[in-house]
Design goal:
264 residues, globular, two-stranded antiparallel ribbon, Rossmann fold, alpha/beta, 38% helix
């Protein structure tokens, strides 16, 4: 059953073209994309809907999170907002969500933009992060510094810890995770997978893949997988950028998106 997703609606006075719908990746939230969404709205006058996926951010927790279920959630939101057609962009896990959405509901899709993920199965390497978050004793956490220090022994990378700690919220003086950690943990294998029979033969919308040159998620070998799944897709590799290319190269990234959805 679809859930009612939390979202931010960046709506200029006189929007140009069709809306742009954005979804984040695993352990992320709409806040990761707020700067890009605001820039696309303010500088390029697009209406942008920036979404929290189920079990993430401010969206409800659910007992499962298959790609089909997450796509159904987005369709329900589109119908609620009376958006019948839009450009759909997803990062990492969100890219697979948007590929699934576009296959299931092609009539909604003007453009499909997939950011730093390929249409392939991945071996998920998130178990250490999951274990560290699950074993964190939130009852002993009085501030974010406490949580950061507790996670440091299992997650030595400070930037990774700071990213994960964006999901920690304080309510009535007590800390808790916005993430539905147990369901995400149970779903990791499915999140990493991609079906061998992903049929895109009927699609008519343009497809853009954007990858970071230094990313471990999208490598040269994945270009062939994109061509096999989406023969007409365009692939753009951003120099000197990694998996977080939209943060590392924000101005270049935003200009690329605005140009693509305006002409494709």
């Amino acid at each position: 059953m679809p859930v009612n997703l939390n979202y931010n609606d960046f709506a200029p006075m006189r929007p140009y073209g069709l809306p742009i719908i954005i979804v984040h990746g695993l352990f992320g939230s709409s806040s990761n994309w707020s700067s890009i969404a605001k820039e696309l709205s303010d500088a390029h006058t697009y209406r942008v809907i920036n979404i929290d996926l189920r079990n993430h951010g401010g969206s409800p927790h659910a007992d499962s999170m298959s790609y089909a279920e997450m796509a159904e959630d987005i369709k329900q939101l589109m119908d609620t907002l009376s958006i019948s057609r839009a450009s759909f962009m997803g990062h990492s896990m969100g890219g697979k969500v948007m590929m699934t959405f576009a296959r299931m509901f092609p009539e909604y899709v003007k453009h499909l933009i997939v950011v730093d993920i390929a249409p392939v199965s991945y071996a998920m390497s998130h178990a250490p992060q999951m274990d560290a978050m699950l074993k964190l004793d939130l009852g002993n956490v009085t501030n974010r510094q406490d949580a950061d220090e507790a996670l440091a022994s299992d997650i030595p990378e400070e930037d990774v810890r700071q990213f994960l700690l964006q999901n920690l919220k304080s309510q009535d003086g007590k800390y808790q995770w916005r993430l539905n950690l147990t369901v995400i943990q149970d779903s990791l294998d499915d999140i990493g997978s991609f079906p061998d029979d992903f049929d895109t033969s009927e699609i008519s919308y343009p497809v853009l893949f954007i990858a970071g040159e230094k990313s471990e998620y999208f490598q040269k070998k994945h270009v062939a997988a994109v061509a096999a799944c989406y023969p007409s897709a365009q692939v753009v590799v951003m120099p000197n950028a990694g998996h977080w290319l939209h943060v590392e190269k924000a101005d270049q990234f935003t200009a690329l998106i605005a140009d693509y959805v305006s002409r494709a």
